[in-house]
Amino acid sequence: LKDDFFRDKRIKKLRRIAGGDTYTVIYLKMQLLSIKNNGVLIYEGIEDNFAEELALELDEDTENVKVTLAFLQGNGMIEETEPDHFLMTETILSSWSNVYDFRSSISGIVS
Q: What pTM was computed for the model?
């Protein structure tokens, strides 16, 4: 977690929308979950879609996870790098100097 996490304008924006504190907690849980895969969340096909599976994994409401994912995608905080592989860009940026270095380091993992 970056020391300026709550000062980030995107996080401030997320927290200001209705339900924003819940979405912020979901985002933090997603970051923690992605750490074991170098910032990548993987959809395994256990549920019908990524949002439902993530909600199951995080013990969160599916609709809240969908809203969180939409916000993160719209603000460049998560991106699908390969089919069923979702890169949490802010998680890896705190550990790596930039996304390019990160992608280069895991090219064999997510291929």
A: 0.80
